[in-house]
Design brief:
Elements (H helix, E strand, L loop, with lengths): L1 H5 L4 H10 L12 H14 L3 H13 L2 H8 L3 H15 L4 E3 L4 E3 L1 H28 L4 E7 L1 H6 L1 H11 L3 E7 L5 H7 L4 E6 L6 E16 L10 E2 L7 E4 L6 H14 L4 E5 L3 H9 L5 E4 L10 E7 L5 E9 L5 H15 L11 E2 L2
Parallel strand pairs: 3-4, 3-5, 7-11, 8-9
Antiparallel strand pairs: 1-2, 5-12, 6-10, 6-11, 6-12, 6-13
C-alpha cells in the first residue's frame, strides 16, 4: 500500500496492477501534488538570504554580471549561480540575459524597489542596535510633571533631537504613573520630580530651584502690589495640598509660615496645580505655587513674588532607580544636566544624591 502511494514512475502498469488487485483506495487524486509543490516553494522562499538580495541589487544596478562580480569581489560563475537560486526561490524571472545583454524584467523592477527597502531597513536596524549599545538610541520612559513640562522640556526636546535623533522619549504624567513607584517597578527609566525624596533605592540630581510665589485673584487688593510681604498672608484664606501629594512643596509652605510666625488659614485643598488655579480663579483663596505656573495661569488670576528673606524655593530633580547601569540612562541624565546648567544659579549646583 505504501509503495503504491509514493510511486510516481509505475505508469499505466502500476495503475492496472492496483486496479486488478482491487485496491481502489490507492488511487491518488490528480490535484494531490499541488500542496507538495506549494510547500516546496515556501521552503525555497525561506532559503533566500541577504547575500542573494545584495547580489541581485548589484547586477540590477550594473546591468552586467562582469561589473557586478567585480563590485562584489566575487567570481562571476558564483554570482550567476546565486541569481539563479534567487529566481528559483521567488518563482519568477527577474532578469532577461543573453551573452551580451542584461535587463530587468517587469517583475525584477518591482522586486528591486522592495529589496532596496529591505536592505535599507537592515542597515538602519544595525545602526540602531549599535547606537543603543552605545547609549545613543532606543526608547526611554520618562516621568514628568507640570513644572518640568514648563521649565525643562521645551528646551530639552530640540537638544535631544540634535544629539540623539534615534532616541524616542515616551512621557508619562505623574497623574498617570507615580514617579517613585514607576522607577522602582521599572515602568519608568527616569523621572522629573520634586526633590528630595524620602523613598529608598532612588538616585537623583538637582536640576533647578524654583521660587515660590503667591497666586491670588486678580481683583484682590494685594494683587496691586509688586511684592507681597509675607506677613500679609497671616490668617488669609489659603488653598493647600496634602503632604503625600507633594512633600517638598508642602514642607516649603509650612516652613515659610513657621519662620514668619504667621497662622495658616486653610479653607480648601486641591490635589494638582490646575485644581489650585481653578479655586483661586473662583475667589476661594490664594495659593503658594512654583513660579513656573505662570505659564498655566488662567484669566482672573495673578502671580506676585513674596517679599521675604530668604525667598522660599522648591527643586526640580531628575531621578532614576539606584543601580541602573543603562548607558542610555546615563547619557540622558548628562544631557539634561547640561541643558539645565545655563538656567540656574551656580550656588544651586549639587552632586547626585543617593538614598540608601
Amino acid at each position: 500500500m505504501g509503495a503504491t502511494g509514493v510511486s510516481m514512475t509505475g505508469g499505466r502498469a502500476a495503475t492496472d496492477s492496483a486496479a486488478a488487485s482491487g485496491e481502489r483506495s490507492m488511487t491518488m487524486p490528480a490535484e494531490s501534488p499541488a500542496p507538495s509543490a506549494q510547500a516546496a516553494a515556501a521552503q525555497n522562499v525561506t532559503g533566500v538570504e541577504l547575500r542573494h538580495l545584495r547580489y541581485f541589487v548589484a547586477v540590477a544596478e550594473e546591468l552586467s554580471f562582469t561589473r557586478a562580480a567585480l563590485r562584489l569581489r566575487t567570481a562571476q560563475p558564483s554570482l550567476s549561480q546565486q541569481i539563479r537560486q534567487l529566481e528559483r526561490a521567488i518563482g519568477v524571472r527577474l532578469l532577461d540575459r543573453s551573452r551580451h545583454h542584461v535587463a530587468l524584467t517587469n517583475a525584477g523592477r518591482i522586486f528591486l524597489r522592495q529589496v532596496k527597502d529591505i536592505l535599507g531597513r537592515v542597515e538602519h536596524a544595525k545602526r540602531l542596535a549599535k547606537q543603543a549599545a552605545e547609549g545613543q538610541a532606543g526608547d526611554l520612559s520618562v516621568g514628568t510633571f507640570p513644572s518640568a513640562d514648563v521649565c525643562i522640556l521645551p528646551a530639552l526636546r530640540p537638544i535631544v533631537a540634535e544629539h540623539f535623533p534615534d532616541l524616542r522619549l515616551i512621557f508619562h504624567s505623574k497623574y498617570a504613573v507615580e514617579p517613585v513607584s514607576g522607577l522602582q517597578s521599572g515602568t519608568l527609566d527616569v523621572a522629573f520630580m520634586r526633590g528630595p525624596t524620602e523613598a529608598d533605592g532612588i538616585e537623583m540630581v538637582e536640576l533647578l530651584r524654583e521660587e515660590i510665589v503667591l497666586v491670588l485673584p486678580s481683583h484682590h487688593e494685594l494683587a496691586r502690589r509688586k511684592k507681597i510681604p509675607v506677613q500679609s498672608l497671616d490668617d488669609l484664606p489659603c488653598i493647600t495640598m496634602e503632604r503625600s501629594l507633594s512633600p517638598a512643596l508642602h514642607d516649603a509652605m509650612a516652613s515659610l509660615y513657621r519662620e514668619a510666625r504667621i497662622r495658616m488659614h486653610a479653607v480648601s485643598s486641591a490635589d494638582n496645580v490646575l485644581g489650585h488655579l481653578k479655586l483661586v480663579q473662583e475667589g476661594l483663596g490664594f495659593a503658594l505655587l512654583p513660579k513656573s505656573m505662570n505659564a498655566l495661569v488662567p484669566a482672573g488670576v495673578t502671580l506676585r513674588p513674596l517679599d521675604c528673606e530668604p525667598v522660599p524655593t522648591v527643586s526640580i530633580v531628575l531621578a532614576w532607580k539606584a543601580g541602573n547601569t543603562s548607558k542610555l540612562v546615563r547619557e540622558f541624565v548628562d544631557l539634561v544636566r547640561k541643558c539645565c546648567q545655563d538656567r540656574k544659579d551656580p550656588s544651586d549646583l549639587t552632586a547626585p544624591v543617593t538614598k540608601s
